[in-house]
Amino acid sequence: MKDVFQQQAEAFGARGTLLGLDLGDKTIGVASCDPDRMVATPVTTIRRTKFTPDAERLAALAAERKAVGLILGLPLNMDGTEGPRVQSTRAFARNLARILPLPVAFWDERLSTAAMERELIALDASRAKRAEKIDESAAAFILQGAIDRLRNAGQGGNAADGS
Fold first, then answer.
1. Buried b (16+ CB within 10 A) or exposed e, 139-157
2. 2 CB contacts (<8 Å, ≥6 apart)?
3. Domains and CATH numbers, the chain
4. Span 84-104, average pLDDT
5. Rounded to the nearest 5°, which phi and psi values hold at 129?
């Protein structure tokens, strides 16, 4: 039986670049993967201003990279429940669809920022460098988890609960 993520990811098709997004209050971390969906790579961090310019920047990045879909990190509570941040992320996705009409799948992002913070510390990145790169690194972590799941599910795609 397919989970929610797999159902959402079917719209991506079997091949093509995906963008991963880590939505924060002040920034949006962006990552992309290769068309074969093997490796996610950090791209940039967008400093949030207003919705429309942020969405237009995402649309430009998607066009540059010929993206066929978006993976949005879903900030579930540690117990798996949905709180206000999840509602905000879903609202962002609904609004983004008006400017960037690509299919969207949600991926459980719990602990993604913490995992990337540990990784950057292990790489001996300075505090300033970590702050500069953490959001796009978290987006890459989210996207890599999703594309790994898709590949293991046999469609280059995955599930909403991240399991």
1. bbbbbbbbbebbeebebbb
2. 10, 159
3. 4-11+18-152 (3.30.420.140)
4. 95
5. -65, -40
